Amino acid sequence: MSAATNPLNKSGEPIAWNFKLLAQNDLGGFGGMGEGMSVQIAKDGRRIIWLAHESAPKNFTGVDVSDPRNPKVIVQTDLPQPYMRSNSLETAGDIMTVAYQTQKVGQQPAGLELFDISVPEKPRSISFFDCSGPHSRGVHQLWFCDGEYVHMASGAPDFKPSHPNDDQFYRCIDVRNPAKPKEVGRWWMPGTSATDNVAPPPRHPLDKGYRAHNTNCYPQRPDRLYLCYIDGGMFVMDIKDKANPKVISHWTNSPPYTGFMHTAVPLFDRNLMLVTDESTENAGKDWPKLIWVLDMRDETHPVSIATCPLPPVDAYKDRGGRFGAHNIHENVPLPTSWQNDQIVIGTFFNGGLRAYDIANPYQPKEIATFVPPAPAGTPVGAIQLNDVFVDERGIVYTVDRFSGGLYTLEMEF
Amino acid sequence: MNSPFPSPAAGPFGRRLKRARGAKVPVTVVTGFLGAGKTTLIKSFLASPEGQGTAVVVNEFGAAGIDDALLRASSDETVLIGNGCLCCIARSDLQEALRRLVIERERGEIPDFKRIVIETSGLADPSPILQTFATDRALGDTFHVEVVVTVVDAVTGLDMLDQSPEARRQVMLADRLVISKTDIAGGSDAIASRLRALNPNAEIIEAANGKLDPSRLTEPAALTRNPFLADEAVHSDGIGSFVITDDKPMPWAAFAKTMETLIALRGPDLLRVKGFLNVEGCRGPVVVQFVQHLAPPPVELEAWPDGDHVSRVVFITRGIGERQVRDLLKAVWAII
Question: Could B22 and A3 be called an inter-chain contact, meaning their C-beta atoms sit closer than 8 Å?
């Protein structure tokens, strides 16, 4: 039977293979979610997952997932402006940090907000760190696990990029006094500031910008930052002296690939690293967007040894929306996060949620797939799974980019 | 193999799994004599929600028979109504059919199936099918035989078991026994007691009017020893079954060397060996399986299914007794 004659293939049959769906919650009809997911254990023992929305009008939503079969929204907040988005958030203890980005440079408010979430139903703003400016859209993504420093991809009032698409760079913010956040370090890719005396980097055909995305830092190596820089590739940074970050190594796949390097997750015990691209074009126009496996035995010389295989682009590209890699579970160094270096779990927009066994890192093998039906209200006609988080119990949380909200699942492998 | 990148979180047998099959595609093997009702049960399963996404392989080992025609018609229909079932008729060879299913799925040419049901021909000995999954590297990596179900007709089953060594072998190698047509036969006590004598470790269930709880075709059989069977069961074919248990953690080498010795001396007579081992240094039970001289790699589970951490391995053998195996294991254990 060919693909053209198989009616099931054409319609995109839902798949739940080795993932078991426990529940879906459309979050009160505001189920378009971004890439901020973090689990807090409240003082009364309840397990709250905090979720960032992909766009206005909602800011963030707290969901009680103590019973993952029955997730309950306990709080949902609004953004002050329709041109804002709170794409990213993290929690550490009872502090939550939220990233605010605006649609255009110069708009306000744009920056970082800290909340006291000790009473989950009543998040209380502690402080706001302004990152707006004539050339800034604010903060796109942040990392906050140690309760002391926020590592983030952000513009700044005093930063003028050499190209308008390159406005967000790495900034390290000291929040040990959460009422008074202060910047303690920053770094941008040479050539991307208008003040640099080196030539700006050449533009990629899709030109998604030379700007920071994920800024991961782990307690195993607090002196290292694993920084993805969208069209600029991945940097391993020495941040022992936070005021003076230094490049240890750089790895990129573009060209010939089409940029948008997104997340780098080191697997310390195995001398490996996972690096993801993000698909940002509909209908497979930026195919292939992949999860890459790097040999990091020598951190000064990353070597790509494999990618996680995806089904044929022809089977997915016309289902609606994007198809390709995006976020993976990042082994966030918190007690509420699953830690695993043998399995990769990632979201692939209309390709759903997929798990890979990397016991043999040269040959990642897909071991589980979850492609739910198009959620009600989605404008693209297909699921667009955007982000994933796995808690220490092994419960998998994934979110849809447009309308499906939160899905909770069990791993069966 | 992965020496540059070992994971300290892995056990001696690799990544610990939640279940014996890990992420492999489960395979249900349905055996039973011609007319026993295999096709009726499979059709009923395909029509249930649990049967969604099932690929059926009819293993005819030769000319197409009536079962083939029946099932093909039924599965074509289920594809058209869109419940995700599909049917693959293996006209040639089981391995080729299964490989083709995998390739077509990877190309996106057929729906993602989540389960395979293999219907054997009436005369088939299930051993070659089990061996296929233990020998063929590509298949063994993708598929896992979850359960072997043998269907026995309550009306003619007793006669069949008396007359046919193949029928007895199908019963002895099964994980689960289904007595069909009990509504016609008007009772099942006689056949049930004969089945229990032939295979004391298998679950025995009844299917009146072709109806069966779908989970009986999907769930692996629990490995529990029937407590009332103190002695090994031996039958006229010389085939016997027994369970070896031990409540002490066992060095892996003790079991591995015992099996190596048995295979070297009597491999063809180890018809089926399966079970859980409490292995020294392992957190969960280690699942082992053998079909004659062949064995898929052992896997460690994340946790024991219950508080009982006793090794328990079922042996179905020809002319090898429980005491011989137990003594061999004890001797090997003492000298390693």
Answer: no
